[in-house]
Amino acid sequence: MRILFAEDDRQLSAVIAESLQKEGYLTDCCYDGEEALAYALHSTYDYDIVLLDRMLPIVDGLTILKAIRQKHIAVPVMLLTGLGGLEDKIDGLDCGADDYLVKPFHIKELLARIRALTRRPPSLTDNQILTAYDLTLERERRRLSCGGRFVNLTQKETDLIAVFMEKPDKTHSRGELIWRVWGENTEIEDGNVDNYIHFLRKRLRELKCRAEIKTIYGAGFCFREWE
After folding, report:
1. Closest C-alpha to 145, from 160, 161, 159
2. pTM of the full structure
3. Does residue 26 fall inside a structural domain?
4. What is the number of domains present in the chain?
5. Measured between alpha carbons, how far is 168 from 223 in angstroms, rounded to an integer?
6. CATH number for the domain harbouring residue 109
């Protein structure tokens, strides 16, 4: 699991980063808002969680948070800040934060909150129309279209293709797809995921589009253009 950690207090950053790394988290540390913004919006990094100080130099934390959400990046974001007033918390949560932790805090509480956030299935973005390659997905209508052709999908097919279309070219494991589409406590098995992948591949062939769902052996599935 990979974490982006933005904190301008280098001593505090080093202490927390060391604790995160001991727990097995890969941690990228930033010390100003400009650098944090560049990392957060760069598709290559694909963070599992962002820990964001609100009072960062150059670009403040709320501005970074708003930019993340405007780009429809669904990564969980926790604000870490000395601003503990009720209105401060409301502002942070209304801007798209998933959690708000006031300094000073115990590292055990931070780790527990990280575990809680990463157990939640990340919600699919609120954007009702997704586009990738030559495909368009109208989520509310459950309609996938390409070049004037369209197919109607079931709800689970819609949810599954939405995960792929949100992040084209990313490889998703079966476990991640189950987590994202069916939730943590589901009893669905890996074979059921394969069945839904089969259904979606059939839909893509019907549309004669440029995209495919490629099996990456030992890793999962990747949504990408035909080679």
Report:
1. 161
2. 0.56
3. yes
4. 2
5. 6
6. 3.40.50.2300
